[in-house]
């Protein structure tokens, strides 16, 4: 398949045509690039799994353009309504009970009785409104690998597997959406992301619960995920010879003069900047040929929780190693 890259300024009609005939469109959101298909078209959704090499038991996020569309798909409790009002459109996904007759194929929910919903900003929102139906749009990358924050990163990974890539520049948030689920009056954090836990807790009026059953209830919950080819060594205090360094902040760990390559997520220690740079810098260090990427400590507060979550999953054992 030939892959075309089109500028977001003029790509809506072409993207709409591709989605309407059951094709795949890689498109920018405020978080990362998404690999989009018509969520009501089973054959189209299956193409997402095929292009990504994604396990079928891992559910997808359904993206909507407004609350009317969201309410046709899921049952909202008052607390979930409150969270949606505060964070949508934006980088928060809410897992909700799936309504009977919702315009979404079973492949999107992976057979669960819940659905993960998000309302994005920008190009994606306008496209969904034109389509008139939700789109399924996981991150536009091979399953388990580094998420894409630029159109070129999508092309390098999925070129030939997707019909159209919409180029909207680098995504501003840089990590995927936060995923929460309200159950029995508590708000469960299923995946940290672009909306900070502290902001969610302020709106919810309660602390988030981080315990969950361990089963996959939402995207991004697999242990090994966002993985480069190189091995990752986290929260290092000293760099070993030949390692690449993913740095953070103004001060360096020991032995950085021997780094085979180095990129700093944020020289000033700004977690928002670090989140925006995370996947692209991981990708660049991986391309440097280093067998190990060492990562300096990143604070856990705010967006640091999401950054550390992605780093932990990138470093998790995979392929039996």
From TrEMBL:
GO MF entries: ATP binding; double-stranded RNA binding; L-threonylcarbamoyladenylate synthase; tRNA binding
InterPro entries membership: DHBP_synth_RibB-like_a/b_dom, Sua5-like_dom, Sua5/YwlC_C, Sua5_C, T(6)A37_SUA5, TC-AMP_synthase_SUA5
Entry's EC annotation: 2.7.7.87
Reactions catalysed according to its record: L-threonine + hydrogencarbonate + ATP = L-threonylcarbamoyladenylate + diphosphate + H2O
Subcellular location: Cytoplasm
Described function: Required for the formation of a threonylcarbamoyl group on adenosine at position 37 (t(6)A37) in tRNAs that read codons beginning with adenine.
Cited NCBIfam families: L-threonylcarbamoyladenylate synthase
Record carries keyword Nucleotidyltransferase: yes
Family stated for the protein in its record: Belongs to the SUA5 family.
Organism encoding this protein: Mesorhizobium denitrificans
Protein name listed in UniProt: Threonylcarbamoyl-AMP synthase
Binding site for L-threonine: 31, 137, 177
Keywords: ATP-binding, Cytoplasm, Nucleotide-binding, Nucleotidyltransferase, Transferase, tRNA processing
Alphabetized Pfam families for the sequence: Sua5_C, Sua5_yciO_yrdC
Boundaries of every YrdC-like domain copy: 9-195
Keyword ATP-binding on entry: yes
GO cellular component, one term: cytoplasm
Binding site for ATP: 54, 58, 63, 114, 118, 139, 147, 191, 226
Main localisation: cytoplasm
Superkingdom assignment: Bacteria
Enzyme class name: transferase
């Amino acid at each position: 398949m030939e892959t075309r890259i089109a500028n977001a300024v003029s790509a809506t009609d072409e993207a709409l045509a591709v989605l309407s005939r059951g094709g795949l469109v890689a498109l920018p959101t405020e978080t990362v690039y998404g690999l989009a298909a018509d969520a009501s078209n089973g054959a189209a959704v299956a193409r997402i799994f095929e292009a990504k090499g994604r396990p079928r038991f891992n559910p997808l996020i359904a993206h909507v353009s407004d609350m009317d569309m969201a309410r046709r798909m899921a049952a909202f409790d008052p607390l979930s309504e409150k969270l949606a009002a505060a964070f949508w459109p934006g980088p928060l996904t809410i897992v909700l009970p799936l309504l009977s007759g919702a315009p979404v194929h079973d492949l999107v929910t992976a057979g669960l009785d819940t659905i993960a919903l998000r309302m994005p900003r920008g190009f994606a929102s306008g496209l969904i409104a034109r389509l008139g139906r939700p789109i399924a749009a996981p991150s536009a990358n091979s399953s388990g690998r580094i998420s894409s924050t630029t159109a070129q990163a999508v092309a390098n990974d999925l070129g030939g597997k997707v019909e159209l890539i919409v180029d909207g520049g680098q995504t501003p948030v840089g990590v995927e959406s936060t995923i929460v689920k309200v159950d029995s009056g508590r708000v469960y954090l299923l995946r940290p992301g672009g909306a900070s836990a502290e902001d969610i807790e302020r709106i919810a009026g309660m602390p988030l619960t981080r315990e969950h059953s361990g089963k996959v209830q939402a995207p991004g919950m697999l242990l090994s995920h966002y993985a480069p080819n190189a091995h990752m060594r986290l929260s290092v205090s000293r760099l070993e010879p030949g390692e690449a360094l993913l740095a953070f902040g103004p001060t360096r760990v020991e032995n950085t003069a021997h780094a085979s390559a180095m990129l700093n997520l944020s020289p000033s220690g700004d977690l928002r900047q670090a989140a925006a740079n995370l996947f692209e810098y991981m990708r660049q260090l991986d391309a440097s040929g280093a067998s190990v990427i060492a990562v300096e400590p990143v604070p856990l507060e705010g967006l640091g929780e999401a950054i550390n979550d992605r780093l932990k999953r990138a470093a998790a054992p995979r392929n039996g190693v």
